Amino acid sequence: MSLSQLCGIGILSVLVLWKMFGGSSRKYNIDLDGPKEVHWLTGNVRKVFEGGLDYCMKIAEQYGGAVKLQSLYGEVVYLSDPLALYHVIMKDQHFFEEPDVFIMNNKMMFGDGLIATIGEQHRKQRKLLNPVFSTSNMRELLPTLQSIAHKLTSIVASKLPDDGSYKEIDMLPLLSRTALDGVCQAILGYPSNTLESAENDEYTEALRKMSSPLISKLIYFRPIVPVVMRNFSSYWTTKLVELVTMPWIPTERMKDVREMRRIIELMDNGSKKAFAEKKAASETPATLSPTAMQSEVDGLYSGRRKDMMDIMLKANSASSSSEQLTDGELLGQMNVMVFAGLDTTTSALSRCVYLLAKNPLAQARLRSEIRDALKRLSLLQDGSSFSEHGSPLLHLSYDELINLPFLDGVVRETLRLYPSLPHMVRNVLKATTLPLQFPVRSSSGAEISSIAVHEKSFVIISILAANRNRTMWGDDANEWKPERWLSSPEGTNRPGTDVPSDGAEVLSTKLPAPILGVKDGIRYPGVYSNMMTFLGGSRSCIGFKFAEMEIKQIIAALVLHLHFVLPTDPDANGYIKEIQWKMKAFHTPVVKPPAGDGESPAVPLNVRLVQEEDFKW
Ligand code: HEM
Ligand SMILES: *[C@@H]1O[C@H](CO)[C@@H](O)[C@H](O)[C@H]1NC(C)=O
Ligand SMILES: *[C@@H]1O[C@H](CO)[C@@H](O)[C@H](O)[C@H]1NC(C)=O
Ligand SMILES: CC(=O)N[C@H]1CO[C@H](CO)[C@@H](O)[C@@H]1O
């Protein structure tokens, strides 16, 4: 694609936006301090999404909980102040909506699921879906994740040399397939098997490709979508899309659009088919044909289990007709949940495994905690070996798994320091004043404890800066310290301490975890341990309990059987691979040059089967 074409599309979308947002009349003058170096056209907000983690932390540290940035569309406020965030996502949530571009693009890609609706329709969907994600439903979904974790562990183990030596394995593709199987099997009830099969079927392949990198390639087209969708009927929108994606437009950008269109169609076709099957099955339980009955029995033996769609359909048909969701909305939820649960979980899983490889003591401590729990629950005979390929299934119950203190610390600490989604954007629907917990400086340098935000302007919720604020989390906020989440830092779970033989003791022996992220009674409004990783309020992550359970199950199964270290051996050219995490809109792990290309996502780790010494910390 030539530069002029790129400029053409760029200018087009600028003009569209210019018009959409009221053009040059929108020169806000937010009375707030912020970095002075500003690009004449694009401002400096891009640095937040392109300058990496350091830039974000630098401005939050320098200017405080509210920072003024410049964007193409006018001034935006970069927020991490606890009180201001409470107003944005909870108290005044109706004035701070998801940007129209986000909602309409999601609607186009996924249909009417949670991330594509606002207002009353969104409220209605949440009301029906919140109970679907209850703890008791999570308990039912765990077995599916256990068998995925088991499969992953066995696959990695089968690649390793028998003599117990290390082998380098890129964990990223494996973990992303794990997350894909997780959403497919536990949420959709779709019998995917991307971990084991060399090639994905069309549907799972479409789900995999429907990811952030492809979407970010379409950045120039995204602003146009709401304008088209709001101004044309769906018939004309379809016609327009067909016209635009005709093969005679030969540019690279158009190839991306065509690819996206194809993926949306594949996903849509597959979801419709899976949904129709589910629906048919749920509507005719009483009249099972003999063959269906047989397969039901087979299903039980081969581990066919309940999934989120079953629970959702059941909840829907049990609701009064005014509360029910349409088939289109239910279908939309399927697509939305796969999308919302895939890259986010992959990112968290790979960061967690990487951090454990980097911190051998934490890894050993975690491993020993898990083994002790198994022993305590008599799920493990003393002396049984871990270094066999046929590794035992890690089948702690939901409550045992969720309450392992150190595992909990590892997962919380990883999600705090490296939130999968570091930023969320909100559009100000009505001019309002945001109070601040901690004063900042105005444009003229005066101390101010509130800021006036203008109608149609944007605020950026800095999940990252909130989760790392030293005032709120302590001076070591930027360090990865799982033990900060333990009631007594020197832990009660050391090997050799009294191990109750009765499994029922597990819960009662756990001391309450300390409450972090609170200062003088002030806390962040997050749904998960006062951190903002899953946000809070009515648009918080509906899947956070599922994500927590999935990450814990996968990490625990991996660490129990496998030992991970960072790469240590020089390659043919004498370079040792060093993993570098780039943060743009998402976190991407790459291998730093010269050992790697610095571009392709990868998490190469040295892996071997565990030995007795790997339990000592
Ligand atoms: C580590 C993993 C995850 C992280 C960090 C995460 C984070 C988030 C965040 C920050 C939001 C708010 C987005 C916004 O304001 O627009 C969100 C929303 C959402 N998440 Fe997650 N998520 C994770 C996993 C999952 C999983 C596994 C599922 C599916 C089961 C899921 C389903 C959703 C849905 C449906 C929404 C939209 C909620 C709404 O708008 O009402 N997420 N998530
Ligand atoms: C933490 O919050 C305080 C008070 O809002 C602020 O002054 C400081 O700059 C913040 N620090 C970081 C690292 O975000
Ligand atoms: C999706 O289904 C429609 C109708 O069944 C079919 O015409 C179309 O080719 C399918 N799309 C893809 C990409 O397979
Ligand atoms: C005539 C019409 O419906 N115009 C709409 C086109 O789309 C923009 C952006 O969404 C709306 O603001 C207009 O009202």
UniProtKB/TrEMBL annotation:
It comes from the Eukaryota. One of its GO terms (cellular component) is membrane. Heme binds at residue 541. One of its GO terms (molecular function) is monooxygenase activity. Keywords: Heme, Iron, Membrane, Metal-binding, Monooxygenase, Oxidoreductase, Signal, Transmembrane, Transmembrane helix. Coiled coil: none annotated. Transmembrane segments: none annotated. Belongs to the cytochrome P450 family. This is Cytochrome P450. It comes from Suillus luteus UH-Slu-Lm8-n1.
